[in-house]
Amino acid sequence: MEQSLIVAALTTQPPTAERSPVEWTQLLRQARILNVLPQLARRYEHVTGVPLEVARHFESARRIAERLALDVHREARRISTALQPLDIPVVFLKGGAYVLRDLAAAHGRVFSDLDLMVPRDAVAAAEDRLIRAGWVSSHHDAYDQRYYRQWMHEIPPLRHLHRGTIVDLHHTITPPTSRFPVQGEKLLATAYSLSLASFPNGHTLGNTDMVLHAAVHRFMEGEWANGFRDLLDLHRLLEEFGKDADFGTALLARSQELGLEMPLRQTLHQLKRIFATPLPPALEIATRPGPVRPGERLTAMLLSEALTPQGPDSKPPERRRAAALLYLRAHWLRMPPHLLAAHLLRKALRPTHESTA
Amino acid sequence: MPARIDQPTPLNLPSTPLSSLTEAQVRERLENGGLALLTPPFRFRIRSNVAGLAATLRTLYADFPLGQEQGFDDFTVSLQKTRPFRPKVHFESDGGQPFEPLPLSQAFPMLEWGFNWCISSHCHNYMITHAAVIEQNGCTIILPAPPGSGKSTLCALLVGHGWRLLSDELALLDPRTGLLTPIPRPISLKNASIELIRQRYPALQLGSLVRDTIKGTVGHFQPPSDSVARSGEPGTPTHVVFPRYRSGASTLLVPLARGAAFIRLAQNTFNYDLLGQTGFEALGKLIANVTAYDFEYQDADDAIARFDSLARGV
Fold it and tell me: pTM for the full model?
């Protein structure tokens, strides 16, 4: 039953402290491997009977997460202040947004980059303002610069000269060349204002868009080290937003409006399978048939393989194969074939020291 | 919630020392389920297919207790040899791979660096300072220093002379109690220091000697049995001494202002920034309760005499 230890501990409230020493070892190892130890630590924060040896690892993990949350608030304020003169909404995405909204998904969430979105026609001005405030481009290669600026939904990552913090500046949530292009204006129109006196321009996506972003991101991603963690985010978001009785219907309608039904359907399928996430009735009905078309079924199989937590010592070859196929698929979804071929050829012919795409 | 586990608890009951196993038995455990080794306050489960590691571990960790098979492991570390031709070793711990693979001959130093990585990146319940810690007559001295300052050499000189070893590399301070948790693992020396210590203290066992690492020649000495046996006794810090070895220097112990000592200790503390206010307060309390010095030395006898007089309170 090794496999479900971590899921049980993350979804049962309160989680049990009745574990054997070997089970505690397995739980801690799985949490480290899946990069969710701080989340687990938060779940156990007020649980009595956790052995001292284990409790100190939880304490350590909580300290990391608390420090990160503090840094996010500070950095968000600095960014917003730098962009203030432009008089545009500054929309924080993903982990940063969860922290700034103090959502349950933020509790113990660790991440390294701060993602933000601004109107497309303000990207150049925003980049300019951020450079003046100390963030410089970390990609110096001309091709990389062009790749991002021409084809992607974000500019190359900016790194702060002194603090080392990384900012990913977006104008929408998916590459315009991808199978699921989303117009940034539509997202900005329903953005949620943080209403903070210290940075009045601070926003996050609206609740439905936040879920859809996390879903499409996970669905198109080629990198799987944090797959389980991202799915856990979605589980927490749905748990929290689902308390609103209309949320399910709204999410479904919005997914149709933005053309993201398929990523949403696939994500919900995995959530039900792995976390048994309670879904609002409208979503329950929409996902009941599961993935039907052969292509979708294959994708679902690969996603299952890559997302299901394994025991800490098992590294089945199927999982590596699934990850490799999903990596290829991610590229396939990002660009039409002729652009992809040109891009991959370019990458292959050039000695790379930075991974970019 | 107490952060310190200095005494055995139901989850980490120690049993017999590692030296009670034969080399073959150690190897058998390394290659199969893993060798559960208690290096208080942590328990490591070590897995490895590297030949020769069993012998080195058995020498350097001879007095450390084995953990019970069904106990709790703080860290599971693996050191695996790959490729039959010009083999390299890979270090991994619970998904973390902090190092590039190294030549096979550097397996043991890599394991030690791996232990240090596990602790300094996962154990923020302590304030973790890059420092040696030694004790005599209740006089507990923190020796913080960047690499190359002669910290470990000084530590080995004093430990060979009878001081208790609390740590050669990481000072673990419990922010709640202000006490130092001992972690008396092997002492790591480099280059000329190895020969110096070997000639001076032939009884100190040199367990591993590796040439041509990025740090030059690296050797590890076995910690004294008495220090290992007393690893459950935390230390109350009394002095902070910043050592500096300088060729041709005369021995010089200069009192250091508290402000300067605070800043320099913070610079050598891995998680000072991460701990935020907790770190600031813990460091402030520590500095308020110790005497701080700058120490420059070259001559070993002089250096030892100076520290002995600190321990006598003169």
Answer: 0.89
